[in-house]
TrEMBL record:
Family to which the UniProt record says this protein belongs: Belongs to the CDC6/cdc18 family.
PANTHER family found in the cross-reference section: CELL DIVISION CONTROL PROTEIN 6-RELATED (PTHR10763), ORC1-TYPE DNA REPLICATION PROTEIN (PTHR10763:SF22)
Name recorded for this polypeptide: ORC1-type DNA replication protein
Domain called AAA+ ATPase: residue spans: 137-351
Signal peptide boundaries: none
Molecular function per GO: ATP binding
Record-annotated Cdc6 C-terminal domain positions: 445-527
Residue spans of biased composition, Basic and acidic residues class: 43-52, 63-75
Keywords, in A-Z order: ATP-binding, DNA replication, Nucleotide-binding
GO biological process, one term: DNA replication
Compositionally biased residues, Polar residues: 1-18
Region (Disordered): 1-77
Residues reported in the UniProt entry to bind ATP: 149-153, 350, 362
Amino acid sequence: MDETTDNTTKNNSPPTDSSTDEDPAEDQNRSNSTRNKGVVSDSRNKKTDREGNNQTVEIDAAETGRDRSSPRFDFDNVLNEGENENKGLFDDLLAGEPIFENKEVLRPSYTPHELPHRTDQINQMATILVSALRGETPSNILIYGKTGTGKTASAKFVSQELESTSQKYDVPCEVQYINCEVTDTQYRVLAQLANKFIEKNKNAIDNRLSELKSLIEQVTETDIDVETSLSETQFTTVSGIESRIEELESDTAEMEPVPMTGWPTDRVYTTFFEAVDYSERVVVIMLDEIDKLVEKSGDDTLYNLSRMNSELKNSRISIMGISNDLKFTDFLDPRVKSSLGEEEIVFPPYDATQLRDILQHRADVAFKNDALTSDVIPLCAAFAAQEHGDARRALDLLRTAGELAERGQADTVTEAHVRQAQDKIELDRVVEVVRTLPTQSKIVLFSIILLEKNGVHNVNTGEVFNIYKRICNELEADVLTQRRVTDLISELDMLGIVNAVVVSKGRYGRTKEISLSVPIDETEAVLLSDSRLGDIETVQPFVQARFDN
């Protein structure tokens, strides 16, 4: 029965209930409204009652989203499509079960509560620094060891113990850490130290001002005479407290932070000196990567810091230097060397067994239960042991393997993930080393790449130099001598980017046979990303002519 027939029947039938009293216009409006909502095309649908008879039922458009009986509409599909539309970029990535419990414990910045196989070095540091807790000046310490041998982690661990013990016994002692690979000039070191102590001094002054103002309120609000109220303080009158408040406020106003550039170095040093000597304390200045500071700006910073104690009145300073270079003191002034190296501690490389212990100790905290297969930690330790026992490399390898497994939504970290992580880290290392090469070294390296791409393997120094000259001429860059280019090739060999072997050519003398030790495509891409070598691609056709002729 269509809509017109149905309406005619209803209008001609005698009224049986109140629903038949509706105005036909209102009924038409409701029908139009139902169609306009676009949920179903008709205002009525057929369904079968319990006796098998067809019934015409009115379907409210507002209820169609919940009515599963409609044969003309796939509600489940609409809901599923709605759910898919609501999914964001990260929903699928979050669907997998996480492997990590606390990834941060695998990062170099994390200081563990326990350092396996470094007990002797930690005890040695503690024995030297304990004098700070007695208010005495500790001896200066130089800590040596290759990358990843636990130098910085051990020093930070001892520093945290020193500061917590000083608070326990109410002894003014603190440690200031500076990474000299980042803060690599005398100005920056002194400015960073000065600003840290200025901030500490201001905070201490603010606390003292609050105490003094509170003391004035207590004295003025009590009925007890002033002298009795102040009997347990250093003051005898309210005016004395007010004078001290004025002094402290004046001190705060004079404490001007040091800008990162613009001041004479002498002024920066004076500001640091006054800031550190403002109150009584023992300060240990930890200079990580101290050899980078000496390499960049000489030993003036170390000389000034090591001589400060003879002029300080309230505070005492001790220096703890950390270096990967066992010979960096050879470049120091003898006076600096003698005062700085009062105590020396050497950190030997870890062996594979020790690395396994370290990894297991961190993995117990970093990963969820049963997230690692049994061969993961031994393999990470074995790879890192090949890199002079580098614990940092081992931890990076384990973390990267876990990240690769998690990205692949794997339930566990396996040996395959470790091997993938090893390849990724090695490639990242190559990219970083190549990216930071000097321009001339990059041109030499690109010359070797160009030779290998054209089928010339085990090239000699002369062939590299010929291509190097042509590239420099096309780029309008300075051309170095062949001896200097040979030195640059030796440096690339030391970095592991190329393999240069000296071979004898009999009566023709000796030469170096050079081959790449890194992936060609990735290395070339890094070189071409350097804006200074942006035109090198246009040079290639000219150099290519050398191979075509």
